Amino acid sequence: SLELIDFKNALEQFQNLVEKMIIRKTKESSGLYTKDDGEIDYEKFYTTTRTLFGSAVKDQNIQAFFRKVMSNFDERPEWLEIFGCFKGQSDGVSSPSKESMVVLVSEKQQITRSVVKRKDVIKGMVKVPLLHLTVTASQKGVLTVFSKQRKSFLSYSFYFHQDTAWITGCDFLPNLKYVVAVTESTVILWDYKSEESQSDGFVIKPMKNCLLCVCTVTMAEDLAKDTFLMGDDKGHVYLLTITSDDFIMKQSKAGKESQFKVLDSESFDIHKRKLHDDWVGKIKYFPALKRFGSCSTDSINSFVLDDIKRLEDHLPVKEFSVPKGVNAFTYCRKAKVIVTGG
Questions:
Q1: Chain-centre distance of CA 139, in angstroms?
Q2: Which stretch is the leader sequence (predicted)?
Q3: Of the N and C termini of the chain, which has fewer Cβ atoms inside 10 Å?
Q4: What residue ranges do the domains of the chain occupy?
Q5: Which whole-number Å values give the CA distances from 312 to 268, 281, 309, in the listed order?
């Protein structure tokens, strides 16, 4: 806590220093200021910055920050830049030790091992920050979980054999610890942790319409169940809750499909509501808003944002019309805005 207080004080002094530089430069450009002994040149800026932050800052970052302030004082640089946080990785400088770092920047790691075959594409990718996982699903049925352990990625892949149906989206069920993926006619639930077989899981079928997207509804009410949303090619949005008991009680006698146990879709209480007059291109749940969003190329009911209860009670929903529809959307919690792309 003492180090944090010291850093806050140092940062405040640094920001005051930059503010003085900008004020003097502004007055100088307008002809209201004459140079005197109080001028902050590079040598003074360098010495003060080095005194405040020590070895946590590099000479080239100090020089670049000073040059940026002097050349364009109307746009103030972020203080993070003094630590080189916005520098590329091609500078050839080795990463400093953690003891000398004030701001720690995560390093990128490229996964070079191919997880899909030729003429196959990734159709869905989702990050699971709490478990340090990344889940991907390819169009032709390759589900992969990348687990970051000991600074290296371990992957668990499984190929879901199917005749003509393609995988159209995926997500992760945080409570049941299953990967959920949708195809044109089924819902896949893959237990990637299973030690018995890499293809252990369940398939929910039949689904009457072509499923195009899926997303998890983040709730911490019950650790023994998960809820997720799906969209189809007829404009319907589905709400489905899966519990651990469903894996035991609702298995079909139809046998196995790619070693997956079959669950009869008719045995589930699946809420469905038609919200769009065209394909549901994307669906997403926003925990901060406690609302879900769904979009379509439909020009009348282009974007819907409402509570998931609307899928059960069929009351009017909040919808927006955009010419030629909406293909993508996202929510920024900091700015409290939703952005759509058509």
A1: 20
A2: none
A3: N
A4: 2-83, 122-341
A5: 14, 21, 5
